[in-house]
């Protein structure tokens, strides 16, 4: 149950980060890509999947240590 709750929060946060990444990608395509030939899609994929872990892992640790009831 705790693992399911942690996964739920990770997926929810990843959803918001992907919305941010899509906006960042559109910004890059419209504004920055005109002046640059670099492909940044790998950075966006990493940012979209790994950034939520920055928030979810400490949340899981705090929940496991401080709110471990039942």
Automatic annotation (TrEMBL):
GO terms for cellular component: plasma membrane. PROSITE patterns: G_PROTEIN_RECEP_F2_4. The keyword Membrane applies. GO terms for molecular function: G protein-coupled peptide receptor activity; peptide hormone binding. The chain crosses the membrane at residues 16-36, 43-66. It is found in: Membrane. Pfam families: 7tm_2. It is a multi-pass membrane protein. The keyword rRNA processing does not apply. It comes from the Eukaryota. Residues 1-70 form the G-protein coupled receptors family 2 profile domain. InterPro entries: GPCR_2 (IPR050332), GPCR_2-like_7TM (IPR017981), GPCR_2_secretin-like (IPR000832). One of its GO terms (biological process) is cell surface receptor signaling pathway. Keywords: Membrane, Transmembrane, Transmembrane helix. This is G-protein coupled receptors family 2 profile 2 domain-containing protein. It comes from Lottia gigantea (Giant owl limpet).
